[in-house]
Design a protein that fits this description.
Structural Genomics Hypothetical 15.5 Kd Protein In mrcA-pckA Intergenic Region, Chain A, 6-stranded antiparallel β-sheet
């Protein structure tokens, strides 16, 4: 079976269990491309920003533990809970996702630890990648450690077993998601483009010529929502997450208005 067939079968199973047994079921953490594959499955309808919808008569909600999460879990809801209520309740969400704060024991002797270092330490415990969501670190203050979003059933094991990351001795404890002291940092950019075409927005964000932006797309160096886009004329939609190999990533926030010359004023948030 190919990956889409396996995903479709898994979604059908989880949605069916939620519907038939009237209890919450959920996937593991999906990457941006995995989530895009989910949305593209036949019978999946999503509303608004895409963090809720229905499939096979079952409501679902998409959560990652914090705003702007890159890795997310699809939760299939029992009949007594609406997606709106679920998304508004941190208590219900913590039945699925927990936040683990991994912190160096001594700030003085802390290495500069990266996302990769923390991920490696967790996977060395035998934890599968789909059990682990976003890992938030602050390169300006390594003593803060990392806030790691994981499936609830893995949180206690991580807290009891992780003792070092690279050469740094650490402790780990679960915290409420609202206690996370690290948030992704963005620079906000507003500017005019002829349209919401991908090449035009890339040229604006990274101060490139239009031909250079088109070249990046044609070299398949650009992904939107985790999927490679090879057409420079691809129209970006509000909320699209764009990653450009060798340049960085940003979130396209949409059109703010127009100019007298018919150009569009758009806004993006660029990850630092």
């Amino acid at each position: 079976m190919d990956e889409n067939t396996l995903l479709s079968a898994r979604i059908k199973e989880l949605a069916g269990r939620a519907w038939n047994n009237d209890y919450l079921t959920h996937t593991g953490f999906l990457s941006a491309s995995g989530l895009a594959d989910f949305y593209a499955l036949p019978g999946v309808r999503h509303f608004g920003s895409g963090n809720s919808g229905t499939t096979q008569g079952t409501s679902f909600a998409v959560i990652g533990g914090h705003e702007d999460a890159e890795r997310n879990v699809v939760c299939f809801l029992p009949g007594y809970t609406s997606a709106e209520d679920f998304l508004a309740s941190s208590d219900m969400q913590e039945e699925v996702i927990r936040c683990v704060h991994i912190k160096p024991v001594s700030a003085k002797f802390t290495d500069v630890l990266t996302h990769r270092d923390y991920l490696g330490a967790l996977m060395n415990l035998g934890i599968e990648r789909d059990r682990i969501g976003d890992i938030l670190t602050d390169s300006d203050d390594p003593a803060k450690g990392a806030y790691v979003f994981v499936l609830r059933e893995n949180a206690e094991y991580i807290c009891s077993e992780v003792s070092s990351v690279k050469h740094t001795t650490v402790t780990a404890r679960t915290v409420r998601a609202g206690e996370c002291a690290i948030v992704p940092k963005f620079d906000v950019l507003e500017g005019s483009v002829a349209s919401a075409r991908l090449d035009g927005v890339l040229a604006l964000v990274y101060r490139l010529s239009r031909s250079r932006a088109q070249e990046l797309v044609e070299r398949e160096a650009v992904t939107v929502g985790g999927r490679i886009v090879s057409s420079p004329g691809y129209e970006l939609k509000e909320g699209a997450r764009v990653s450009v190999r060798g340049h960085g990533k940003f979130i396209y926030e949409g059109v703010l208005g127009g100019t007298r010359k018919g150009r569009q004023i758009v806004r993006v948030r660029i990850f630092r």
